[in-house]
Amino acid sequence: MTSALDRQQAVELVNEAHAAGARLKSACAELGIGLNTYRRWAAGGHDKRPDAVRPKPAKALSDAERQAVLDVCHQPEFASLPPAQIVARLADQGTYLASESTFYRILHDANEQHHRGRMAPPRQSGPPPRHRADGPLQTWTWDVTYLPTAVRGQFYYLYMIIDIYSRKIVDSEVFASENANNSSILIRRAVLREQCCHAPPKLHADNGGAMKGATLLATLQKLEINPSFSRPRVSNDNAFSEAMFRTCKYRPDYPTKGFESLEAAREWVHHFVQWYNHEHRHSGIRYVTPDERHRGLDHDILARRHQLYQAARAANPERWSGDTRNWTPVGPVWLNPEIQNDPRASLEAA
């Protein structure tokens, strides 16, 4: 409980801020207290709610009635059933003891509301894997998506590896099947193409079989690549790859009716990668191309844009009501950055 001295200091700080022109509500929010709490403290009162004596509700179950509920739950025929099943079966027998929610509440109070049965208990997902990239060739993310064919129900499989710092597609390929051997081929080719054998990047993927097969894991170990995986059934942990596939499949020339052959799919993906890496101005990196940022050219390009905008404002200052557009180069990039006040952060700290 907050001491009297702490309450007095808080009131003094709020009064000082209010005298300087701050709103009472904003000043109280900075201290983490409500406006009504401040007014009560300022009047010399204190919160009596924690010490208040609350009478037992008149409609509450008696101790005997609560024990009757527990006795029923302890019977062998009901011992493995949830309250929803117990209440329904009791109703068929012409017996009513309490509602389903009351059954849950009584079991919880008695520390008997636990997972039962052979099915794995539900578990809360911990914090996602987090990676920071200060430059290219530090963190890659990759995934596999389906490409439709001319035959309904048959698909090709597009593998794509992205450098999260530059958003560059460092390698991609279309295969007729999805397996760890194809994944191994693509990873080796990407490392050789980017010439990063002596300083391999971190590689993040989801939990698909093609990303966790023994052949691929052996390849990663040989290349000294540290793999990272998303949490099970959480697609947002691999957001860069998911966003890339959306961009790919929403291109105007994407064949929505399917690819006629594997060669046609590979040709289309090749043209898409060339466009994306060398022509597409990416909004997440100040509208430079991924290849320009990957090669470190974005600083000079953005500096020239800044000079152009400064000259335009100097030529017609009356047309500018504020600063020019922000052409500052984007700094480090995070995969799954930590969110302030995220309750999962405590799990990570533990």
From TrEMBL:
GO terms for molecular function: nucleic acid binding. InterPro entries: Homeodomain-like_sf, Integrase_cat-core, RNaseH-like_sf, RNaseH_sf, Transpos_IS3, Transposase_IS3/IS150/IS904. It comes from the Bacteria. It holds the Pfam family HTH_32. Gene3D superfamilies: Ribonuclease H-like superfamily/Ribonuclease H (3.30.420.10). One of its GO terms (biological process) is DNA integration. Residues 111-133 are annotated as: Disordered. Residues 132-298 form the Integrase catalytic domain. This is Transposase InsO and inactivated derivatives.
